[in-house]
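During the reporting period, we have paired protein sequences with backbone structure tokens. One record among many follows, to show the layout:
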Amino acid sequence: MQCEVTFEPEHRKIQVRPGISILDAARRAKIAIRTRCDGRASCLMCKVEVLNQEGLMPPTKQEKLKLGSLVERGIRLGCQARVSGDTSVNVPEDPLKAAIRKQLARQKQEDDWL
């Protein structure tokens, strides 16, 4: 059985086997999810927003401890959240890329104004 994982906002889809982590599925789909601990739930950088909770296994005790009430709002650790069916996740934009994009937009706006 294969499960389909959709990564937003790129709307990139990949077929994976049940039990794979969102982080590993993202790597296979060539979607960048930031991490420093290489999937050991210690850096908390791989947070993603799950748009379809039914397609994931329930959060582990460790993940619940790390995220607290964020789990109830659909936030999961990509390294800990395991696929059990079709699901969609929203991957936040890398902060450095976001800062560069905002600066370029500001410069373009200033150039257009002149």
In short: The radius of gyration is 16 Å. The mean pLDDT is 91. The helical segments are 22-28, 61-67, 95-113.
